[in-house]
């Protein structure tokens, strides 16, 4: 083949492969903007109706955040004086997903059995106000919708994010109990045996509570055992309604500073609680063609125009491309065909890692017993996950085909 033809094609192939591989790791910054203010602006207010970055629950119409700019501004009056920019948020009560679908289910919190928790938007992120306290918030890490499910093989540690991992250590021989453990950063926080055969869904809940931020028995993790399966080679547990908050509490105190904003009020419980910040010691300039930091990932962006004032608030987020994920954010594994269950299968016990507590007596299997498979212990069909594709190979195959065609054409010419 003519070298003058080969070299450009090879170079094109290399560039295409490099581009395909690079696209798999691209991290994009996305701007979520609020309503644009233009001309002469007086006392503008942004909340969830005109600023999509703020937390909003459409099902229950729950909104907690607002940003207000006091005063009149135009092309010649662009300076925001101290105390003129105010951010406000407060707790709102919202029902746990599992309690919406199963009214008999309750979650232990302190000395009470509850069906609600307190949500609080904080700098455009969803947090939980523990004990309903406006000034004590924890990041919400995982919250399954009512149709989300996760299937775990026994012994498998499921990375929940934030350093947390859930492991289904073992299923008892009858499939009536599951032994769970919850850990963070490799250190076990809790382990518990949960019933799987109970009609009352509360008895099928695994709930971990902890004393955090000076509040007693705050629900940190909960899930419902939906189904179990014992096979010859694989034992499986399926869970729903997974809920997890970080056990690290952010306590908001008066005088704390976030960006140019200072906390002026941080107190109260439940609907009467409130957190208020303003720019008490910093002026803000809405000068032409500027991006002014407010706090966190929140900014004001102003148009490059000296004759007309035009600006909006915005939050900047970083989004990366990747493989398909489960509701928790982990990579979706390929689901293999469910193994058939023999009449008397051998007991498959996953060895416990070093440091794991003694297996509770109620889940220790007996080799001589027969494992029954009932409708209760057979999970619903789990949709087969999309197999992860290796980025860039589609481009390689396409270019290889082009090379083959070019080679054949040139041979015919020769």
Short description:
The chain has helices spanning 3-23, 97-101, 393-413; strands at residues 27-33, 37-38, 41-42, 45-46, 56-57, 62-63, 66-69, 72-73, 79-80, 85-89, 92-95, 107-109, 112-114, 116-122, 125-129, 136-143, 149-153, 157-161, 164-171, 177-184, 187-195, 205-212, 215-230, 235-245, 250-251, 257-258, 261-267, 274-278, 284-285, 291-295, 298-302, 310-320.
Strand content: 35-45%
Number of domains: 2
Share of residues in helices: 10-25%
How far apart are the termini? 9 Å
The number of distinct helices, counting runs of at least 4 residues, comes to: 3
Assign an overall shape. elongated
Detail the poorly predicted runs. 3-25, 321-326, 328-357, 365-394
CATH class of the largest domain: Mainly Beta
Largest sheet composition = 9 strands, antiparallel
Mean pLDDT: 80
CATH fourth-tier homologous superfamily of the largest domain: DU1608 C-terminal domain
- Per CATH, which architecture of the largest domain? Sandwich
Radius of gyration, CA atoms, in whole angstroms: 28 Å
Structural class: mainly beta
Secondary structure tally: strands? 32
- The CATH topology label of the largest domain is Tick-borne Encephalitis virus Glycoprotein, domain 1
Explain this structure to me?
The structure is a single chain. Residues about 5-25, about 320-325, about 330-355 and about 365-395 have low confidence and may be disordered. The strands form 8 sheets. Strands 11, 14, 15, 16, 17, 22, 23, 24 and 25 form a 9-stranded antiparallel sheet that branches. A 6-stranded antiparallel sheet has the order 4-7-10-28-27-26, with no helix packed on it. The chain has helices at about 5-25, 95-100, 395-414, and strands at about 25-35, 35-40, 40, 45, 55, 60-65, 65-70, 70-75, 80, 85-90, 90-95, 105-110, 110-115, 115-120, 125-130, 135-145, 150-155, 155-160, 165-170, 175-185, 185-195, 205-210, 215-230, 235-245, 250, 255-260, 260-265, 275-280, 285, 290-295, 300, 310-320. The longest helix is centred in the N-terminal third of the chain and has 21 residues, at about 5-25. The protein is elongated, with a radius of gyration of 28 Å. Helix 1 (about 5-25) packs antiparallel against helix 3 (about 395-414). The chain contains 3 helices and 32 strands. The chain has 2 domains: about 5-25 and about 390-414, no CATH class; about 30-320 and about 325-375, Sandwich (Tick-borne Encephalitis virus Glycoprotein, domain 1). The protein is mainly β and about 425 residues long.
């Amino acid at each position: 083949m003519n070298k003058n033809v080969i070299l450009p094609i090879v170079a094109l192939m290399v560039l295409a492969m490099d581009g395909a591989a690079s696209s798999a790791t691209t991290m994009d910054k996305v701007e979520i903007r609020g309503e644009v203010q233009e001309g002469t602006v007086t006392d503008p207010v942004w909340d969830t109706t005109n600023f999509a970055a703020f937390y909003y629950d459409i099902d229950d119409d729950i909104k907690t955040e607002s940003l207000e700019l006091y005063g009149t501004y135009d092309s010649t009056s662009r300076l925001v004086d101290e105390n003129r920019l105010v951010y406000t948020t407060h707790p709102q009560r919202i029902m746990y997903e599992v309690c919406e679908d199963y009214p008999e289910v309750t979650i232990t919190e302190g000395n009470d059995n509850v069906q609600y928790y307190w949500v609080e938007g904080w700098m455009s992120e969803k947090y939980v106000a523990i004990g309903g306290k406006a000034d004590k918030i924890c990041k919400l890490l995982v919250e399954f919708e009512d149709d989300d499910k996760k299937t775990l093989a026994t012994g498998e540690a499921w990375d929940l994010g934030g350093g947390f991992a859930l492991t289904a250590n073992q299923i008892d021989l009858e499939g009536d109990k599951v032994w769970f453990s919850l850990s963070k950063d490799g250190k076990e926080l809790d382990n518990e045996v949960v019933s799987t055969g109970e009609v009352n869904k509360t008895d099928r809940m695994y709930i971990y509570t902890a004393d955090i931020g000076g509040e007693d028995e705050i629900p940190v993790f909960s899930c419902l055992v939906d189904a179990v399966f014992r096979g010859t080679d694989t034992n499986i547990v399926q869970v729903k309604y997974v809920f997890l908050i970080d056990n690290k509490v952010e306590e908001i105190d008066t005088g704390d500073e976030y960006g140019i904003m200072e906390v002026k009020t941080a107190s109260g419980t439940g609907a009467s609680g409130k957190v208020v910040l303003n720019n008490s010691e910093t002026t803000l300039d809405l000068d032409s063609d500027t991006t002014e930091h407010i706090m966190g990932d929140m900014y004001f962006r102003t148009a490059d125009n000296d004759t007309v004032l035009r600006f909006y608030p915005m939050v900047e987020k970083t989004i990366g491309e990747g493989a398909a994920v489960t509701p928790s954010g982990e990579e979706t594994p390929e689901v293999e065909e469910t193994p058939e269950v023999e009449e008397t299968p051998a007991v498959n016990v996953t060895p416990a890692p070093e440091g794991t507590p003694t297996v509770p007596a109620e889940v220790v299997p007996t080799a001589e017993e027969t494992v029954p498979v009932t409708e209760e212990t057979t999970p619903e069909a789990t949709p087969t996950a999309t197999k992860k594709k290796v980025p860039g190979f589609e481009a390689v195959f396409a270019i290889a085909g082009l090379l083959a065609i070019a080679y054949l054409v040139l041979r015919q010419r020769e």
